[in-house]
């Protein structure tokens, strides 16, 4: 399960989904679109048991909704089915026809059809790297990349030295730098140093294509995340599905506290990031927490007292995830006498 597939991070999608990308939705082809999902998660607007059809519709709508600013029919969304190895050889083609036929009929007659890449009808055994259909995925991505509206787009040559320097810093395990660091790097520019305004144009472009993360907001514009997975790993170290906390007592304790009270103390984050594999986040702890607050993963209460909580997961991402098991008092919210909670 990818990070952004976890329901607690749904509210961050608008910051990470880009119309410049090609999206790949992977589904279990050994099951029909209407079989109940084995691992049920919260899904906006859907109660009860969920199916692959529900999640497919949700993800396609999410991608198209948050990837505005492109031409009609973009971004492209590839649908790939896996677990071919679970079927008998004689069943594969029948299943392939049924699965892709169902996907096509789901969106037929809607604008969403123009975004789908399903004509290749890829059905793979992901355990077998020599499965010829694995190569078809790469071929399809290359083909669709060349059809992107941004393919062949002219870019300023003055960006190239900075891009190369960023790659060099990543190789040295420097995942986050400050804007002042960038200014120093910029002074060594072989053509001419860029102005601060031009540097921000460069950073916003790099952010748009997913190479870095840069938020041009007060309090966040002082730092640049060179490796997006660094920020993602920091998120996962604190907030994730319970199944990913097993074997880590400190994370399990945090998870239990958040599930029961919907709160997390700042000192608990600092303690977690001082130890072991999470120590790499400690240096940039203030920036990382600020980003999580900016993305509405955490909320810092305005009324702080000696016994007040430091950070409180948001109503939208946490209350929904726990299906209202978090005490409503935590959020100063109370259902009306006639309101029925699920």
Automatic annotation (TrEMBL):
Pfam families: COR-A
Alphabetically ordered keywords of this record: Repeat
Domain COR: 156-300
Name this protein carries in UniProt: COR domain-containing protein
Cross-referenced InterPro entries: COR-A, P-loop_NTPase, WH-like_DNA-bd_sf
